[in-house]
Amino acid sequence: MPPKSSSTTTASKAGSSSSSARNSSNNVILTLWNAYMEETPARLKLIDAFLFFLMLSGIIQFVYCVLISSFPFNAFLAGFGSCVGQFVLTASLRSQVNPSNKDEFKEVSPERAFADFALGSVVLHFFVFNFLG
């Protein structure tokens, strides 16, 4: 029986190197996820879940506007602006409440940060409601 050609061994080496690169990227993502789950406080995980919801809601509204209809365009702008504005306010709350940022926000207590977030949300939604018409 003749020996196998070198082209098949080269192809198998290339396939194994791409699968090892894929495995290493999966390991990095898994390591990042495990570190997030172990080291992030529950309060920040709740805020992150709300940020994810706001991002998903904004994406769904944008896709709906592009693919189906933007008939009441001011309603789309109000809804999308509400998602973006609330995302910005929530990201600000997350950065102020994060224990690792305590040095940057020395004079801001978590209660004060939440009060600022709540007041900003009320003002934002007042403008959104008025923009609806």
Q: What is the number of E strands?
A: 0
Low-confidence stretches: none
Order of helices and strands: HHHH
Output mean pLDDT: 87
Largest sheet: none
Distance between the termini: 83 Å
Q: What form results from the Cα inertia axes?
A: flat
Q: Using only CA atoms, what is the Rg? A: 24 Å
Q: Given the structure, what is the number of helices?
A: 4
**What fraction, in percent, of the residue positions are helical?**
over 70%
Please state roughly what percent of the residues sit in beta strands, choosing from under 5%, 5-15%, 15-25%, 25-35%, 35-45% or over 45%.
Answer: under 5%
Secondary structure category: mainly alpha
Please provide a written account of the structure.
- With 133 residues, this protein is mostly helical.
- Helices cover 81% and strands 0% of the residues.
- It contains 4 helices and no strands.
- α2 runs antiparallel to α3 and α3 packs antiparallel against α4.
- The longest helix has 34 residues.
- The N and C termini lie far apart (83 Å).
Topology:
Elements: H1 6-39, H2 42-67, H3 73-97, H4 110-132
Helix pairs in contact: 2-3, 3-4
Short description:
The protein is an all-alpha fold.
Supply database-style keywords.
133 residues, 4 helices
